[in-house]
Each structure stands twice: as structure tokens, then as C-alpha cells.
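Q: What structure does this chain adopt?
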Amino acid sequence: MRVLALDTSTPHTSCALLEDDRVVRERSFEPPAKAGDVLPAALGDLDGIDAVAVGLGPGSFTGLRVGLAAAKAIAYARKLPIAGASSLQAIAAGERGLVYAATEARKGELFVQAFRDGVPQAPAQVVLAAELRLPEGARLVRAPPRAAAVALLCLPRLRGASYDASACFSLAPDYVQGFPARGG
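A:
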């Protein structure tokens, strides 16, 4: 099974191609590259893709919407199964023990979620970076999520799955917090 994976939840846009559970290709783009600018070129030829995986955040409002729209459009147009996974869980994937996965939110805040051996222990939350306190023995894992890790999390749901148009419309980003309306 060839899986195309995207994660645009942070400014570090990532896309990957997996064949079964082996990473064939993975690219990450550093800021100031924008997901909408780099995804078309990075994705290249989509022939032979069997499924799509996408990071659902939490993360950048615009980034999440761009990545999710791209993933849904590819799945819908090509009639492929699609699945999403938590970007924070992708960061925690493969980590042993109690870890807190974190990514930048905004204004000195972090999106943080606790995992034990990759299993969520509590919902994601937003905390001020300066006020983050971890329990004794816990480790902080702070890195951009990788699209390949998102794909590996989605593989069990994608194996044997068939196209379901409703999945293209039901997948939703996890913003964790509302974003304030901008005054005009």
C-alpha cells in the first residue's frame, strides 16, 4: 500500500510517501515556506497512491486548513481512502515512558499533550511556555511533526479501507482553542 502523508500543522510543512510501513520519500520545508506554496511541487506525481494520511493538529489555523484541504481534495478526486491523526501523537510516536509532546501555538504559548508509550493520557491543551511544568520523570518532546509518523499512525485504519466520500467531508482539524476574530 502506497500512502501519501501531509502535516501542515506547524510552519515546518512535511510530506511523505510510504510503501507499506517503509518511508520511500519525505520532505520538510522550513519557514518562511508556506504550505500552499510548496505542497503542489513537493507532491509531484500522484500515480500509484493508494491512500492519504493527514495531520489534524493542533496547530496553525491556516496551515491546518491548507493541509487538510489538499489531502481531502486528493482523496476525493482520486477516490482514495483518507485518515487523519493527531500531530502531537505523531511527535510522541516511538517515545517510551511519560512524555509531553509540544509545538508552538502563538504569543508564547504551546500546544501540549501527555502521552505514555505513545498513548494519549489527557486531551491536548494550550499553555504558556514560561509556565509549563512537567511531572517528575516526564520528558518534553518538542519537534515539528513528521508526515511519515502521521502515516504510520493512520496505517491500521487505511489497510483494507475503501474510498468513502463522507470521510473526505467529516475529517476536521483540531484547533484546541478558538482563534480571536480580527477587527476590521
